[in-house]
Design brief:
The protein has 138 residues and is α+β, with helices and mostly antiparallel strands. It contains 5 helices and 4 strands, in the order H-H-H-E-E-H-E-E-H. The chain has 2 domains: 57 residues, no CATH class; 80 residues, 2-Layer Sandwich (Phosphorylase Kinase, domain 1), CATH 3.30.200. The protein has a 4-stranded antiparallel sheet with strand order 1-2-4-3, with helices on one face. It is elongated.
């Protein structure tokens, strides 16, 4: 018997409705019970839930992960309280101490952060988790 494609495993449930790590764990258990071990591709799709959650924490409206690079597009309103928040302070601190790996930029009139050496969704989650652990008070 062949394992089902990763997309079949993950489309069976509603990944967008998963908010907490507990919800994700319960979803993974259900998929494992129904289909057996989740293949690598399925694990990567499940990591998108964590990436989106961290993206919301960092005030991103959009995240693009492509060709080993991840670009975060921040809220468009320059007067947003986000730009005075601890989360933005964490981003600034990371960007200033990791200039070889990231670049703050304006693309199409929007503030962005470009991170390099991000080969997978899991790597994107790991780096955002690392940034979230920085003490970044402004």
């Amino acid at each position: 018997m062949y394992p089902p494609p990763a997309s079949a495993c993950c489309s069976t449930g509603n990944l967008d409705g998963l908010e907490s790590p507990t919800d994700v764990d319960a979803f993974c258990l259900r998929m494992n019970d129904r289909f057996g071990p989740i293949p690598h591709e399925g694990e990567e799709l499940i990591q998108v839930v964590h990436l989106r959650r961290l993206g919301r924490y960092f005030g991103t409206e959009r995240i693009i992960l492509k060709n080993g690079r991840m670009r975060l597009y921040f809220v468009n309103n320059q007067d947003s309280p986000f730009y005075q928040s601890a989360a933005f302070g964490q981003i600034l601190q990371f960007a200033t101490t990791n200039i070889h790996r990231c670049k703050l930029d304006v693309v199409g009139g929007r503030n962005t952060l470009l991170l390099t050496s991000i080969p997978s969704v899991k790597a994107g989650v790991d780096i955002l988790q690392q940034i979230s652990e920085i003490s970044g008070e402004l």
